[in-house]
């Protein structure tokens, strides 16, 4: 260990700051009991302050320092705020979804400090055999698990089978090797310590996940490349978190915890071990370590679920963070578009001023280039001439309706345009707009549907025709009923006149509006006296 590394740890480590603090006994005793021994993973602020108040009262009463001479004179709320300050880093505060009250949890620094202080206690028994066996077993697993030669793997399995066969033969012969009391206590001590260390590691795993997520957010915030590359980086980083050594180890351990059969087997083995004479006679009363070990697998499951929930929350927050980034980008695009619109309106006002020249770059010949390639022009294809044979013409003898041949009408568009201009003057009442329905009510249709269609196709320099597809109007007029059927050779005066019927046409609303051209002609009644009458 280098001197500079130790100096850096002394300045930056939150666990070191905790051990150097004047209130270290208070912090370690209270936070260690609450978050380490009781395995509390989240506690509301009001409950945390209340429990700290009770803890301070018990300390001051036992020391006889109640009142102004108390060893810890600050309020419980002040201590909690001080411990959660980033400069200390002993408590992590956050707001759960749907809660307006902050919740607290201990940081990995508190776990490290509590474990280190616990190692300072003297131990009546220090076992080494079980740890040595663990070292050899881990070495054997590494050596065998990384062996790619099938012959070597087969040789190792055969040796293991030989040892098992020898042990089976000894048991059948009545020779059973049993661990002595010292070996039992040695292994039980290592079991308890490993189980407690495993539980305390969950906070560090959760903190490392948060660190990885924080680094990913920093890269997203400072990203200046393409959005596709950003999404690829996000997916790769999230996969890196899940595929990291820590992530794979945690998920494998969590899958082990979810196996109900393994949980039942673990509980049965713990009960069997704690019932041994060497373990139970060491302390006739159920020590806190014994009680905690009986339910340590439930604490593992709670801590693992807490870490899984943290990963899910981080993923959801990351998704919302990306959505916010996209929203900000869209807002920036809208700001740019509004700026372009404002400049375009300003340029329009400048161009509309009398005597003002068009600003350069504000006029274009077309909105898009028109490319016409010679190869796009089709080749000439002569039309075949139609041959008419008039030598064999036969006269037809079937009856058909011939009234339509004599009932040809012509609609004058100029007359309809004068009618619209008159309606704009008389019916518009200064609004410079009149609907087609008002025009037809004022001047009924004389030629039915043909005249109505001509209204829709009017093109006059003094007004425009506006079509509103979202509204519907009805236009009514009197038209001829179905014509009487007669012989084709019958004269028209012998055919009875049909009765008039009301015709109704439903069409999108049509409005005639005066053109807003400056200096244009003033609409006036241009109809002749005969038309007005």
UniProtKB/TrEMBL annotation:
Swiss-Prot/TrEMBL keywords: Coiled coil
Keyword Nucleotide-binding recorded: no
Disordered, as annotated region: 478-497, 512-533
Protein species of origin: Cellulosimicrobium arenosum
One of the Pfam families matching this protein, by short name: DUF3375
Domain of life per record: Bacteria
Coiled-coil residues: 154-208
Lyase found in the keyword field: no
Protein name (Swiss-Prot/TrEMBL): DUF3375 domain-containing protein
Basic and acidic residues compositional bias, start-end: 524-533
């Amino acid at each position: 260990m280098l001197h500079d590394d130790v100096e850096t740890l002394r300045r930056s480590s939150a666990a070191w700051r905790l051990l150097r603090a004047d209130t270290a006994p208070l912090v370690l005793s209270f936070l260690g009991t609450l978050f380490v021994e009781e395995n509390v993973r989240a506690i509301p602020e009001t409950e945390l302050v209340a429990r700290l108040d009770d803890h301070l009262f018990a300390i001051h009463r036992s020391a006889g320092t109640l009142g102004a001479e108390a060893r810890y004179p600050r309020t419980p709320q002040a201590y909690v705020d001080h411990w959660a300050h980033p400069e200390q880093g002993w408590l992590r505060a956050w707001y759960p979804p749907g809660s307006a009250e902050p919740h607290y949890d201990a940081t990995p620094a508190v776990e490290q400090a509590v474990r280190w202080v616990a190692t300072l206690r003297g131990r009546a028994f220090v076992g080494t055999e079980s740890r040595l066996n663990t070292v050899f077993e881990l070495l054997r697993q590494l050596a065998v698990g990384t062996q790619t030669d099938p012959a070597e793997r087969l040789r190792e399995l055969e040796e293991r089978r030989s040892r098992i066969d020898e042990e089976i033969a000894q048991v059948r012969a009545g020779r059973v090797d049993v661990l002595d009391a010292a070996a039992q206590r040695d292994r039980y001590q290592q079991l308890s310590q490993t189980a407690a260390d495993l539980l305390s590691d969950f906070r560090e795993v959760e903190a490392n996940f948060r660190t990885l997520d924080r680094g990913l957010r920093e890269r997203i915030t400072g990203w200046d490349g393409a959005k596709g590359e950003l999404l690829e980086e996000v997916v790769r980083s999230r996969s890196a978190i899940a595929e990291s050594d820590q992530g794979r180890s945690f998920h494998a351990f969590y899958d082990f915890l979810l196996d109900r059969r393994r949980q039942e087997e673990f509980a049965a083995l713990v009960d069997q071990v704690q019932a041994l004479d060497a373990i139970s006679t060491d302390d006739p009363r159920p020590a806190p370590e014994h009680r905690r070990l009986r339910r340590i697998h439930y604490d593992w499951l709670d801590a693992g679920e807490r870490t899984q929930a943290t990963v899910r929350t981080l993923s959801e927050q990351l998704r919302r963070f990306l959505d916010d980034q996209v929203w900000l980008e869209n807002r920036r695009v809208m700001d740019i578009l509004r700026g372009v619109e404002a400049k375009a309106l300003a340029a329009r006002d400048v161009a509309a001023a009398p005597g003002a020249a068009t600003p350069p770059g504000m006029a274009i010949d077309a909105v898009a280039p028109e490319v016409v390639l010679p190869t796009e022009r089709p080749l000439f294809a002569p039309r075949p001439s139609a041959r008419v044979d008039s030598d064999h013409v036969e006269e037809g003898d079937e009856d058909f309706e011939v009234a339509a041949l004599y009932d040809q009408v012509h609609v004058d568009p100029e007359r309809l345009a004068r009618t619209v201009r008159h309606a704009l003057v008389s019916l518009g009442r200064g609004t410079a707009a009149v609907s087609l329905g008002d025009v037809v009510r004022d001047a009924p249709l004389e030629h039915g549907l043909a005249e109505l269609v001509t209204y829709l196709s009017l093109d006059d320099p003094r007004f425009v025709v506006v079509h509103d597809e979202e509204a519907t109007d009805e236009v009514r007029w009197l038209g001829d009923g179905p014509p009487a059927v007669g012989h084709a050779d019958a004269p028209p005066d012998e055919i009875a006149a049909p009765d008039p019927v009301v015709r109704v046409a439903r069409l999108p609303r049509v409005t005639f509006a005066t053109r807003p051209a400056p200096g244009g002609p003033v609409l006036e009644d241009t109809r002749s006296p005969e038309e007005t009458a």
